User: Fold this.
Amino acid sequence: MHPYQDIRERLEALNKIGIALSSETDLSRLLELIVEEARSFTNADAGSLYLLDEDSNCLQFEVAQNDTLKKRADLKPETFKPYSIPLSRNSIAGYVAITGETLNISDAYNLPPGVGYEFNRDFDKRNKYRTKSMLLVAMKDTEGRIIGVLQLINSTDSKGKVVPFDKNIESLVSSLASQAAVAIKNAQLLKEIKAVFEALIQYSVSAIDARSPFTAGHSRMVAKYTMALARAVNDTYEGPYAHLSFSPDQLEELNYAAWLHDIGKIGVREGVLDKRSRLSDAEMESLINRFENIKASAIIETEKNKLALFHRKKENSPEIEELDRKLKNRINRIDEGLTFVRMINTGVFLSESGLKHLEEIRQEKYLDFEGQKRPYLTDSEFENLSVRKGNLTKDEVKEIRSHVIHTEHIVSKIPFTGHLKRVPVFATGHHEMLDGSGYPKHVEAEDIPLQTRIIAVADIYEALIAGDRPYKKSVDLKKSLAILKEEADNGRLDKELVRIFIENKVYETR
Assistant:
């Protein structure tokens, strides 16, 4: 082959590698790709990559690849885990990281005297491997700062024989390393931005959850159950989702949606979120004071009537005894009514007969200080106390449910693009049911994405198993799973997702 043709092909290959590197944004995959492409470019049997950590003055050994050991049947290759080594001129990689020189070594076991660095044979001894030719290049960013070292080992010819690395390609490998450095810096920057964005979301949502002690940690656990269920779907090889597998980008999108699903609760009043009884403490105290005043007024009125009667007859009479009897009965009714109100205020289920009795109490009248007749219970008190189940009135239930609309307004304003663009869709539909009985849009199965269905299962389970809340008691594991199955059997939840959730014990996620 003509030398010019060989160089042209290598330049074309280098250009393609550069394009491939620039399109990869996941840092761990990028580092592996850099070593793979550099090895392919130089016919290297093995390769490593180190990143410089200036804060700790170390080289972080990030990637190790070796085709020979990978193919060996007589020896189980070491499981590589990234680790740090001190930054020192004594090691070959350290020397390159400090000086920025390119090292092209014909035989690592026979280094020229006085070079100032040495080869560590420990890895070779443990794995019965022979490192011979080496090419090490400093990876420099656009400002010329060294960010790491690319190390290639044992270049091979067309017959598989280990040969020295061609000196003519050193500049091309340096160019590749520079492209790799730029890609790494971009990936690191993107990773840092994502980390900040994710932390901002998590801390913001956690703060909103913490407005009520009953929901603190809810979104965090929903996100955990959501991701565990999504991964369980990936590991399913039977049923309607056997063919489906969420990609890392799709999992990231789903994770954001799960964290953000309840962010709209910031638009719901704390008094509604944390409503522990049908009447607030202040409202109950006002009602109690009113009932005590009604009793006092009844006593005063009776005493006035008794005094007037005594003045007319100058002696005790059956009429006076009748006034005392009526007063006693009225006081008993007032006390009984207050006792009943106290009892139903705690959120117990209000039966039909209980509702009728509450109406009877409401119909009782008393004279206020201005002589006006007023009912024992105000309209607002009656509305709150007459809730049949739980503590929330219809308007308050509507306000609670409005958090989904608030979530949509908030999340849709976040500029999610690319693989994250459907976060708002997934985050805002977690209260929709497959049979159309959910809210706020009452859409049915065909319009509910699988990701939204996953969040719905996670959200309902977490709400069931969580500690006592103002509107419900905590439900144990067995009953919680039974409720999930019942909801699936009734066509409200995705039956296959519930099956996967239970059979894969997603509920054990912590």
Residues 1-5 have pLDDT under 50 and may be disordered.
